[in-house]
Each structure stands twice: as structure tokens, then as C-alpha cells.
């Protein structure tokens, strides 16, 4: 049945509960009840059914029959009877769009981009909560942007692998392979995103001229997002980027790429607030989690990292005018064989940026090259380094219950800005070892306190 005309129906709010629509004190007849129901259907019931995608007109015969069997002494039963009639419609309100029914083929070879975009358009047009379903298979997708719409309850349920083109040049110059832009209330559940990035990594390693590469999943200027049970495999560049978003929860996510894969940060967060990263496993060739300018109220808990470059705030001071980073908690994280553990890094150049109110707590290190680092002279290739004093102000950073093994003799390094020394660094119960002996710590322009057992010995 075609319900396209429903958008023209409106609720006449002026008639709702108006005296002319109320029953008088006398006992109503069946005909008066019928007239009343007809009036109310056009004002109140209409709205509820339109919201769930059904025409109230289909109910009129049933309601008319129902009214005839309601005695004058049973008027109070009408709400219950109405609920019994309407409840089946409510129960079936959510709609599902199977991408296969819209032309997608799970053979790994047929371009299914249009089918996924059509499913998104249909979900956006729905007045009901909608699910886009990808059944088992391998679906080839080119770069696709899923833009915001009026439906704020869309779920991507993926029981499949979405695969990027094997020729890295097809999406290599796109900023994102898959992007959700300016959306609200989207959930992405399950599935594998295979970026097929190995060809691009090889190109970059060869020194040839190559595309920069695409981020596998971009969440841009979006709100109230859930990503659960998703796997990102072999991204060309960053795996997941959260940029300009509010209230994003990533849970049970797996990131997997070679430890030698270039610029493949696992999860990058910037210009976003209220982001949670929980119960996640990350193996990659760059930072497991990188935290950029403007990240606030970020919570990271129960994450396993390695191989990779650790969890890093920064690099900062790329620009003179830059948003600060604050209220970050990194808790119950394990680093295994990583280049770094917990790190704050900024370039040695002027900036109005800052880092404050950061907690690293209950952290395990296993054979980590540099477990604890603040580096405000960051210059990874040691070429064309700014050579100035970093303008980023670092303060109120706590390291608590950090233990494990370091692969370098200097297990704790605080190399802060000469112009804006680090303030309020707190060490509490830190125990790191290097080849079964106590490692060292080094400090430059760093101030703070230490309490509990501290090894290496504090240099603050």
C-alpha cells in the first residue's frame, strides 16, 4: 500500500481536548462514541500512526465495529481496546532494508556502493527507526558518504565484510573510504571493514609517488554514535577518525594491521567531546589511539595495544591557533611490544594549545620501548625541526599504578617546554623494570610530585 500521502496529514492541535470534543455528562450512545472516535482519529491517533508509518484509515472499519460492541457502561474500556488494536502496528514499526534486495552482491567483485547508498536514502526517508542489513558475504564498495538526515535512529547491522577496491588508487585520494557526515543517532553493529591497504603500504615503502591513502571509517560532525563489534582490517591510512563529534561510543572494536604499516593510527579523536573507547584490541603500525586538538572528556578503558606506537596525545603545535586537550582518562590499558606506552607530544614551535586534566591509571607495560613520555621537541624524522620552544602548556597529568617492563634504559622521560614548563605532574605507584633492574628517568623543565613506590626514581 502506498502511504506517500501521509506527509500531508497534520494534527489539528486547536481541536484536541477542546470543549466541543468532550463528552457531556449524559450517557453516550454508540453513535456518539463513533462520531467522537472519527473526530479524534483525525487529531491524535493520526499523529501516532503517521510516526510509525501506517495510515489510520486502515483502522476505521475495525474501530467502527469495536464501538458497536461497547456498551454505554463500558466507555472506560475504550483506551484499553484502542491499545489492543494499535499495538500490532507499534510492534512492527521498525523497518529493515536488506542491501541485497537493493542490488548489492556479496561476491567481493560487484560494485555494491549504489545499493548501500540507496539503503541509506530509504532509511533516511523512513519515519520509523530503520535498520540497514548486510547479510553474510563480501561487498565491494568504493568511497561512500552517508550524510545526515531527519531519521535519528538508523542502525547498520553488518554480518559481512565490506571490502575496498584492491587497486589502492581508486580510493587512495579520497579523504575517507566510508564516512558518516553530520548524522545523529546512528549505530554500526558488527562486520569487517577491509581497507586492502597492503598495496599502498608497499608503494610508500618503495619511495614511489603514491596517494596519501584513505581513512577506513570517518565519523564527522556527528552526534550520539555507537560503534560496536566492528573490525577494521588493513586500512590504507587511519582506521577510524572521530572529528567534530559529540557523544560517541566505540565498544568491542578490533583494529588489525601490520606493525610496519605507515600512518595507520587505530583510532584518532579530535575536536570532539564525550567519546568513549572501551574493550578494544588494536594492532597497527602507528598510534593505537591518537588524541588531537580539541579532544575533551575522552574516556579510554580496557584497551589492548600492540604492535603500535602506544596511546598519544598529539602531536600538537602543528598550528599557532589550536584547540586544547583536556579531561582525558586512560584506564586499564595493556601495551605489548609497542614503541611507546602513554605519550604526550608536541612540536617545538609557538602555539596557544594546552593539555590538562589527564589521568593514566592501571597501565600494564610488556616490553615497551618508551613506557612514559612527554616530548615537547617532537620531530620524528629529525629533519627541518622547528627548534623553538613549544607553546603547548602541559599541566595536571597523573600517572598512577603503572607497571611492567621497559625495552630501554630510560623508562620515563619528561622533556617539556623551556618557555612553558610542565606543571602538576603526579607520579603514584609506578614500577617499571629494565632487564630485571631499575631503569632511569630524565626530566627537563618538568615539575610535580611523587608518592608511593616509584621506579625508576622520580626526577621531578
Description:
The chain is mostly beta strands. The chain is 15% helix and 42% strand. It contains five helices and 30 strands. It has helices at residues 30-51, 60-68, 78-91, 113-125, 198-206; strands spanning 95-98, 107-111, 130-134, 138-140, 144-147, 154-158, 161-163, 176-181, 186-189, 192-194, 215-220, 223-228, 231-233, 240-243, 246-251, 254-256, 267-270, 273-283, 289-291, 296-305, 311-316, 325-336, 340-346, 354-368, 370-375, 393-406, 410-415, 422-433, 440-444, 446-455. The strands form two sheets. It has a 19-stranded parallel β-sheet that branches. Helix 1 packs antiparallel against helix 2 and helix 2 packs antiparallel against helix 3. The N and C termini lie far apart (74 Å).
Short description:
With 460 residues, the chain is mainly beta. It contains five helices and 30 strands. The chain has helices at residues 30-51, 60-68, 78-91, 113-125, 198-206, and strands spanning 95-98, 107-111, 130-134, 138-140, 144-147, 154-158, 161-163, 176-181, 186-189, 192-194, 215-220, 223-228, 231-233, 240-243, 246-251, 254-256, 267-270, 273-283, 289-291, 296-305, 311-316, 325-336, 340-346, 354-368, 370-375, 393-406, 410-415, 422-433, 440-444, 446-455.
Amino acid at each position: 500500500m502506498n502511504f506517500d500521502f501521509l506527509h500531508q496529514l497534520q494534527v489539528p492541535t486547536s481541536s484536541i481536548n477542546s470543549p466541543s470534543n468532550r463528552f457531556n455528562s449524559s450517557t453516550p450512545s454508540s453513535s456518539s462514541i463513533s462520531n467522537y472516535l472519527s473526530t479524534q482519529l483525525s487529531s491524535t491517533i493520526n499523529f501516532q500512526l503517521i510516526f510509525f508509518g501506517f495510515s489510520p484509515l486502515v483502522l476505521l472499519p475495525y474501530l467502527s465495529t469495536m464501538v458497536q460492541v461497547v456498551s454505554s457502561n463500558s466507555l472506560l474500556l475504550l483506551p484499553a481496546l484502542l491499545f489492543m488494536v494499535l499495538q500490532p502496528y507499534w510492534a512492527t514499526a521498525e523497518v529493515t532494508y536488506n542491501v541485497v534486495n537493493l542490488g548489492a552482491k556479496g561476491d567481493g567483485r560487484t560494485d555494491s556502493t549504489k545499493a548501500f547508498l540507496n539503503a541509506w536514502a530509504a532509511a533516511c526517508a523512513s519515519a520509523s527507526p530503520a535498520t540497514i542489513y548486510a547479510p553474510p558475504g563480501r561487498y565491494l564498495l568504493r568511497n561512500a558518504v552517508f550524510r545526515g538526515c531527519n531519521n535519528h535512529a538508523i542502525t547498520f547491522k553488518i554480518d559481512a565484510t565490506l571490502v575496498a577496491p584492491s587497486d589502492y588508487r581508486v580510493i587512495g585520494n579520497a579523504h575517507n573510504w566510508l564516512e558518516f557526515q553530520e548524522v545523529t543517532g546512528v549505530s554500526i553493529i558488527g562486520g569487517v571493514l577491509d581497507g586492502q591497504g597492503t598495496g599502498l603500504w608497499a608503494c610508500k615503502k618503495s619511495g614511489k609517488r603514491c596517494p596519501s591513502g584513505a581513512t577506513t571509517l570517518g565519523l564527522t560532525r556527528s552526534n550520539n554514535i555507537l560503534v560496536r563489534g566492528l573490525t577494521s582490517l588493513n586500512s590504507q591510512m587511519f582506521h577510524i577518525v572521530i572529528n567534530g563529534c559529540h557523544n560517541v561510543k566505540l565498544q568491542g572494536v578490533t583494529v588489525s594491521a601490520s606493525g610496519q604499516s605507515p600512518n595507520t593510527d587505530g583510532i584518532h579523536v579530535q575536536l570532539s567531546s564525550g567519546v568513549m573507547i572501551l574493550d578494544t584490541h588494536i594492532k597497527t603500525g602507528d598510534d593505537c589511539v591518537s588524541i588531537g586538538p580539541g579532544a575533551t572528556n575522552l574516556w579510554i578503558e580496557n584497551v589492548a595495544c600492540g604492535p603500535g606506537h602506544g596511546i598519544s596525545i598529539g602531536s600538537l603545535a602543528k598550528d599557532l591557533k589550536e584547540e586544547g586537550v583536556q579531561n582525558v582518562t586512560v584506564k586499564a590499558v595493556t601495551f605489548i611490544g609497542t614503541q611507546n606506552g602513554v605519550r604526550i607530544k608536541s612540536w617545538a614551535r609557538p602555539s596557544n594549545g594546552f593539555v590538562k586534566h589527564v589521568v593514566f591509571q592501571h597501565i600494564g607495560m610488556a616490553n615497551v620501548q618508551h613506557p612514559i613520555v612527554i616530548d615537547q621537541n617532537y620531530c620524528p624524522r629529525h629533519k627541518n625541526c622547528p627548534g623553538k620552544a613549544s607553546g603547548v602548556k602541559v599541566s595536571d597529568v597523573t600517572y598512577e599504578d603503572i607497571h611492567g617492563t621497559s625495552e630501554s634504559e630510560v623508562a620515563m622521560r619528561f622533556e617539556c617546554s623551556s618557555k612553558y614548563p610542565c606543571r602538576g605532574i603526579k607520579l603514584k605507584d609506578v614500577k617499571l623494570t629494565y632487564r630485571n633492574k631499575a631503569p632511569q628517568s630524565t626530566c627537563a623543565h618538568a615539575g610535580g610530585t611523587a608518592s608511593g613506590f616509584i621506579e625508576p626514581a622520580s626526577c621531578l
